């Protein structure tokens, strides 16, 4: 993912050159993993070939991370600001964590999204939730399908579980029993909270924009607005005249009263 500051020219140049190739590789990674989970089982010949391909792609991601780490001027700051990349590289035994490298695809898609801020957030949300849902469904299905006492036995079950989990509904009819499946669930729950927060913020922003547009339309000058302002000025003038008249009458009343004693 691109760095947030502009004081890393070598790192930014490397990321610009590798952005699209790594995105294509990440999409290929997801496709190969989906075929491995849905069409093969451990021990089969094709499963081993597909797994070797996944390891090869993961090795490319490791090389990319190491190159970026070497190009960064401030190594510790780079590590601190890219925790997911480090986790994905350092924990290949958790298959679903390796798939999180697909955030590179979201970063690249951001280049062609609309310039409107709300539209960009909505596009990010749709793409990221879709990718996260597919990855989580594949990961939990692979972890649970052969586990004793598992309730998620088909890919359809895993998709339903992802939907109820990421929306924080949580019916409880399906739940993972393996350690890897529960790790997927934990990440999905956190993602669901983030999704709800993003949706709430987008709705609040939309309401504020509508209220601002309404106030701006009322502030625009026009024949009706000018008429109302003229009427308002007339009423104020009449009130000032009445106040002046009352003050005059009060002064006359006081002057007409006999002096005490």
Automatic annotation (TrEMBL):
UniProt KW keywords: Ion channel, Ion transport, Membrane, Transmembrane, Transmembrane helix, Transport
Compartments (UniProt record): Membrane
Domain Potassium channel as annotated: residue spans: 137-207
Keyword Transmembrane helix: yes
Keyword Transmembrane: yes
Lineage top rank: taxon: Bacteria
Topology with respect to the bilayer: Multi-pass membrane protein
InterPro entries: K_chnl_dom, VG_K_chnl, Volt_channel_dom_sf
Any single biological process term in GO: monoatomic ion transmembrane transport
Segments crossing the lipid bilayer: 20-39, 45-67, 121-140, 152-171, 183-208
Record-linked Pfam families: Ion_trans_2
Name by which UniProt lists this protein: Potassium channel family protein
Organism lineage: Bacteria, Bacillati, Actinomycetota, Actinomycetes, Pseudonocardiales
């Amino acid at each position: 993912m691109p760095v947030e500051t502009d004081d890393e020219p070598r790192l930014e140049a490397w990321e610009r050159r590798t952005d699209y190739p790594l995105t294509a590789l990440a999409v290929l990674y997801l496709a190969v993993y989906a075929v491995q989970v849905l069409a093969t089982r451990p021990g089969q010949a094709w499963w081993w070939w597909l797994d070797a391909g996944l390891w090869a792609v993961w090795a490319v991601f490791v090389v990319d991370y190491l190159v970026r780490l070497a190009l960064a001027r401030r190594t510790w700051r780079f590590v601190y600001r890219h925790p997911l990349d480090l986790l994905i590289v350092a924990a290949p035994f958790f298959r679903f964590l390796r798939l999180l490298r697909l955030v590179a695809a979201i970063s690249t898609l951001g280049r062609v999204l609309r310039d409107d801020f709300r539209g960009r957030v909505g596009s990010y949300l749709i793409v990221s939730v879709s990718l996260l849902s597919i990855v989580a469904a594949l990961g939990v299905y692979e972890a649970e399908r052969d586990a004793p006492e598992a309730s998620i036995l088909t890919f359809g079950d895993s998709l339903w579980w992802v939907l109820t989990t990421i929306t924080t509904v949580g019916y409880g009819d399906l739940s993972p029993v393996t350690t890897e499946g529960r790790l997927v669930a934990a990440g999905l729950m956190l993602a669901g909270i983030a999704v709800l927060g993003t949706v709430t913020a987008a709705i609040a922003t939309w309401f504020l924009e509508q209220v601002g547009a309404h106030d701006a339309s009322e502030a625009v000058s026009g024949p009706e607005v000018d008429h109302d302002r003229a009427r308002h000025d007339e009423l104020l003038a009449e009130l000032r005249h009445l106040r002046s008249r009352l003050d005059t009458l009060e002064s006359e009343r006081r002057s007409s009263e006999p002096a005490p004693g």
